[in-house]
Amino acid sequence: MTPRTTLSRRALLGAAAGAGAAAALSGCGSGSTGSPSTTLQVWGGVPAANGPQELVDGFTAATGEQVTYTRFVNDDRGNLKVDTALQGGVDIDVYFTYAAQNMALRAGSGMALDLTDRVRADPDLAPYLDTTAPRATMVDGRIVALATAREPNFLLFNESLREQAGIELPRAWTVDEFAATVRELAGPDRYGTYSVPDTARVSLGANYWYAPEGGSNFDDPAFLEWMQLGRSLIDDGAAYPWTEVLARQLEAYQQTPFLQGEFVVWPTAPFNLRYLNNAEDYPHDFLVAAAPTPTTARGDWNGGSFNNFIMINPRSTKIDLAWEFVRYWVTDGAGPMLGGGKIPALDVLPDEDVLAGVLGEDPEQWFDVESFRRTLFTDEPKLMTDTILSAVPEISLVSEQQRNLCWIGEKSPADAVASIDALADAAIRRYERQA
Amino acid sequence: MTLTPPLAPPAAPAPAPTTATRTGRGNPSLPKPWIGWAFLAPNLLGVLAFTLIPLLSVVGLSFTSWNLVSGLEGIEFVGLQNFLDLAVDPGFWNAALRTVVYAGISVPLTVLGGLGLALLLNGDVPGRAVLRVIFFLPYIVTVVAIGMVWLMILNPSAGLVNQTLAALGLQDLPGWFASSHWALPALILIAIWSGVGYASMIYLSALSDAPTQLYEAAEVDGAGAWTQFRTITWPSLMPTTVFLLVTLFIGASQGFGLIALITAGGPGDATTVVSYYMYQNGFQFYRFGYAAAIGMATFVGVLALTVLTWRAQRGRTLHD
Predict the structure, then answer these.
(1) B chain contacts of residue A4, beta-carbon cutoff 8 Å
(2) Alpha carbon of B270: minimum distance to chain A alpha carbons (Å)
(3) pLDDT tens by residue, A96-142
(4) B85-313: which CATH number, 1.10.3720.10, 3.30.230.10, 3.40.50.1970, 3.30.1330.30?
(5) b/e A389-413 (16+ beta carbons within 10 angstroms → b)
(6) Is the pTM here over 0.90, yes or no?
């Protein structure tokens, strides 16, 4: 006799329950909340070899406490991994946030410990209480994240090509002078500049996407001026053709055409200096000098910001140790991060040490050191931090999309900015409605 | 010498099954039903954990507002709001239109190309086996390699295609991925290139089952090649054609890898198809409820298309 093998309702329910339980349990991996380790768990986006590991080793040597640094890739997927891990109860004590959109979500969703009282109690951390040029992220007046780095923008010059063109290295200049200079630098086999600095940011400073009365601020003439400047320089052959930028996906590899002498001026920030003092991986035979961001008639913001925010997971079981580590990172331990181009947010190191750390070994071989000293320190770049974070990813995307359409010549600057304005306004209204 | 054992006496008539024997509890010599389920369990668990639960979660999420970082307690039921928003979202409808264009051009051309190639390779062609492998290769190559190669081939200034067109004296050459007018056609071109080999393999296997007696009868009746194709080959291939259309349409509606790798939906939003729009809303804007609603709408669209395709072929196959 063949036994009947049809599924009874009870068996089905049992199997489903068992499978469900197993599936649920399978989500509890090694990083679950079950048994947090005694080692401090730190997640950051900078490769361990570019400073974090040396910093962690320094902390262990100073305190005897063990720290594990886990690197995540600072892109959409990497940040999603961090968010999922934080929500899923993975053993993370300290973590980093780099982009405004991630900060908006994490800071507003209870994923960051309130650090206000600890900062107030520590005189060395007083700059974090400053609200005029904030170095900390605040939610409802409470500090939830501390900037570990300052990232001033600057314009790098290929010195060989600049000298060939007989142009003086600018120390202070306006956007009009910038445009005239890169037009002069352009030649038959090279472009004057890779791109244009964000002159709307230079004019308007922090929170420049948001109108004071609410909604989008893209109807401010500063945005149209920026869009027009980029388009006219590209059309004139003074700026790198944006069709090539898109076709070769150069936004992520700007250093390659700079090192190959395809353009003379490169608007960028210190984290890209690592490509310029590494002869083995990025060979080149010219010196690089720095010039400040050009100013406009309306403002002299540098365009750079305080960044690389460090936060403590409120679910951490080692909050005191986590705070000790955070404090070490922003004060005594900041030195090793210089190699990755991370200038400390606080003035905890002498300028000369910072300069030496950022430029690396044998700086004279690769850089006009004096120009970097001036640009980074003597002339004190005016940094800012955005405090309004409504619909940042949506605005960032539409701004990028319309800029691309304009700079490849398919849309006029006026139409492109009008489109950004309309789409950004809709995104902000939707964000506020849902908040 | 080996003796054959005596035959066993005939078994007594089996008693009427009881509940106990049906479940195997009453007779320990009978296999237990749970053993079968135990063998099925690993696969069942996989389907449950990686298909069924996520599918049901998407259905549930589409009626909520959730940004992931607020945790499970942050899930807010919003009823049909996501679907109402979707109905008036120009971004979604533009993406849907692009998906229809992308799938509507790439899939039929892939199927037609596959059919032509299969008919060619089914004949007496020298090096037929090698040619089959060559044409099938793009289907098994990783999407990253395909993307990188086509990025170089279609570079507006230094790419092979535009260099060739320029050498032929053509002007105003396509900007391909750096043009909002040409980026989608470029993706369609790649989709056809990478899918034709697969379609031809499926058709080749169907052609090997072609009813030879009908061809012989047609020959005797004096039917030409075109008449044979129209009256015998095409109807006999109809189930295969429907299979290819349905599976390729589903694949095209979910096309994501190449777009994410090459254009990221641009320039502008020129290549933002529904799957990429869903990704943007979910993983860039953290609007997981809305992204789930987009997924549901896509599912309904693809289902409708599948049913229509299925109904359209009824009565047109050789055996109907």
Answers:
(1) 17, 22-23, 33
(2) 10
(3) 999 888 888 888 788 899 999 999 999 999 999 988 888 999 888 89
(4) 1.10.3720.10
(5) bbbbbbbbbbbebbbbbbbbebbeb
(6) no
